[in-house]
Amino acid sequence: MAAVLYVVATPIGNLEDLSPRAQSVLGRVDVVAAEDTRHSGRLLRHFSIATPMISLHEHNEYSRIGGLVERLLSGQSIALVSDAGTPLVSDPGLQLVAAAHKAGITVSPIPGPSALTAVLSVAGMAMQDCRFVGFLPHKSSARRRQIQGFASYPGSLVIYESPHRVLDTLKDMVTILGPEREAVMGRELTKKFETVLRAGLAELHQAIANDADWQKGEFVFVVGAAPQPEAEVGAIYNDEDERILRILMASLPTRQAVTLATGITGRKKNTLYQLALDIERQGQEKA
């Protein structure tokens, strides 16, 4: 166990999701670096784990890194945990993990619960192209700018949100991404009042607005890919298109030949005009 920084995933709601391996590591390390020692303390007590804790959150991470790295270099082992889920996924700990790597300390993951993977597993959306956004900015103007920035993203988007801003965020997404943009809402995942709903953004906004109970808890959304422009059917011209265009160009000006060929072949005018330019270029080269 010496000189290892363990990054330990903890339950996002249901305590039974804490793996036996995670329990073993938390019980054997020298110290647990926790985002909130009160919150993690309840988890440790539930499993009768008496390992001492030290707080490590966004406001003290820089000041604590030096001491924690020294403890690791002296041979002590440390478990890094966040309030819920997998550390570093929208949680503190990034600087400590980076410093441990730089110091040559072994960093080992103890995988387990994560709101990110939990919602993706029930979304029923293609995940080949998926962008993790995390929490959006608190200020409305910055939030809208960020949403606008990924409005045309061709893959799915994973967004975290708190109950205090969920309606405002959904309203902005409806305005910018469109009311029919399909999305999946995961609310209070793995907890007693877990809710998973797939619908258009406007429908999700309305559902939450109409139910005060649904405005409580933590939210994670998977927003479907932006609609992509339909490709022109048969946009790449074929030999028959070229044959027709060559016949017309033999006796007509290029633009007129392209217009007639468009009506005959059903191709887009720009596609055939580019072909006509290629034909003219070939003729010039031969000359």
Q: Your description of this structure?
A:
The chain is of the alpha/beta class and 287 residues long. Helix content is 43%, strand content 17%. It is built from 11 helices and 10 strands. It has helices spanning 20-28, 37-46, 61-73, 94-102, 115-123, 140-149, 166-177, 201-209, 239-249, 254-265, 269-286; strands at 4-8, 31-34, 53-55, 78-81, 106-110, 130-135, 156-161, 182-187, 195-200, 219-223. A 5-stranded parallel beta sheet has the order 3-2-4-1-5, sandwiched between helices. A 5-stranded mixed beta sheet has the order 6-7-10-8-9. Strand 8 (182-187) and strand 9 (195-200) form a beta hairpin. Helix 3 (61-73) runs parallel beside helix 4, helix 9 (239-249) packs antiparallel against helix 10 (254-265) and helix 10 (254-265) crosses helix 11. The radius of gyration is 28 Å and the shape is elongated.
Summarize the helices and strands and which ones pair or pack:
Layout: E1 4-8, H1 20-28, E2 31-34, H2 37-46, E3 53-55, H3 61-73, E4 78-81, H4 94-102, E5 106-110, H5 115-123, E6 130-135, H6 140-149, E7 156-161, H7 166-177, E8 182-187, E9 195-200, H8 201-209, E10 219-223, H9 239-249, H10 254-265, H11 269-286
Parallel strand pairs: 1-4, 1-5, 2-3, 2-4, 6-7
Antiparallel strand pairs: 7-10, 8-9, 8-10
Helix pairs in contact: 3-4, 6-7, 7-8, 9-10, 9-11, 10-11
Low-confidence stretches: none
Distance between the termini: 79 Å
Compressed to H and E, one letter per element, the order equals: EHEHEHEHEHEHEHEEHEHHH
Structural class: alpha/beta
Measured as a percent range, the helix fraction is: 40-55%
Strand order of the largest sheet: 3-2-4-1-5
- Tell me how many strands there are: 10
What is the 3D form?
elongated
Distinct helical segment count: 11
